[in-house]
Amino acid sequence: LTSLTIYPEGSITNGHYLLPFRRGAFYALEPIRPFLFIDRSSTMLSPGMVPDHIQLIYYFSFAYNYFYVEHLPIMKPTEYMFKKYENHVNNSESKEKYEAFIQACYDVYLEAGDLKPTTKGLKESYEFYYLCRDYNKEKKKSDKNEDKHQKEKTN
Predict the structure, then answer these.
(1) What is the pLDDT of residues 30-73, one digit of tens each?
(2) Are strands 116-117 and 17-18 parallel, antiparallel or unpaired?
(3) pLDDT digit string (tens) for 117-140?
(4) Are 21 and 106 in contact (CB under 8 A)?
(5) Mean pLDDT, all residues of the chain
(6) Do 48 and 126 form a contact (C-beta atoms < 8 A)?
(7) Where are the beta strands (DSSP E) in 1-132?
(8) Do 43 and 65 contact (CB within 8 A), yes or no?
(9) How confident is the model at residue 76 (pLDDT cuts 50, 70, 90)?
(10) Could you say which of 13, 23, 69, 126 would form a disulfide bridge with 17 (CB–CB 3.0 to 4.6 Å)?
(11) Contact assessment for residue 67 and residue 56, using Cβ atoms and an 8 Å cutoff
(12) How far apart are CA 129 and CA 120, in angstroms?
């Protein structure tokens, strides 16, 4: 049996949220062995607020980090799974059985990892952060110019 590691989210979050899974690992409807990579060391900086390379340098600068891998049971697609997630399949665009398999695995990850579902990845967090930062810079400039203008009026 050949092993292949696939990250079903296709991206990363901050370890407290789980992005929707992509179909790649599930499309063939073959059994999978889920793993959870969990960092509970609280050494991570605020998610989405610093670039990845800075985050990694910071993270690995500690003498040790509390990081573990949790092996979950092998998941096989079954008729019971397809029946249980039938509504999810019917609401999807493709209406394929692998959609039920994806949702079943996603639910297991959420529960086992004590994670919250999200659709916002780190890229969106960065974009939001930089948008807010730039807005605040412009606001400060505007406020300074307004203060300067007010002082000129009073003189």
Answers:
(1) 999 888 877 666 555 454 455 666 666 776 777 666 667 788 89
(2) parallel
(3) 888 766 666 666 667 677 777 777
(4) yes
(5) 77
(6) yes
(7) 17-18, 35-39, 67-71, 116-117
(8) yes
(9) very high
(10) 13
(11) no
(12) 13
Report yes or no: 106 and 18 within 8 Å, Cβ to Cβ. Answer: yes
**Assigned token pair, 82:** 């397809």
Ramachandran category for residue 121: left, alpha or beta (phi over 0 → left; psi -120 to 50 → alpha): beta
Tokens of 100: 């039920």
- Phi/psi of residue 43, nearest 5 degrees: -100, 0
Which tokens go with 54?
């800075």
Contact 104, 34 (CB under 8 A): no
Sequence-ordered list of residues with C-beta below 8 angstroms from that of 131, at least 6 positions apart, any chain:
none
Q: Could you count the other beta carbons within 10 Å of the beta carbon of residue 73? A: 9
Tell me the C-alpha distance between 105 and 26, whole Å.
9
pTM: 0.64
Note whether 68 and 38 are within 8 A (CB): yes
Structure-block tokens of residue 70? 């949790």
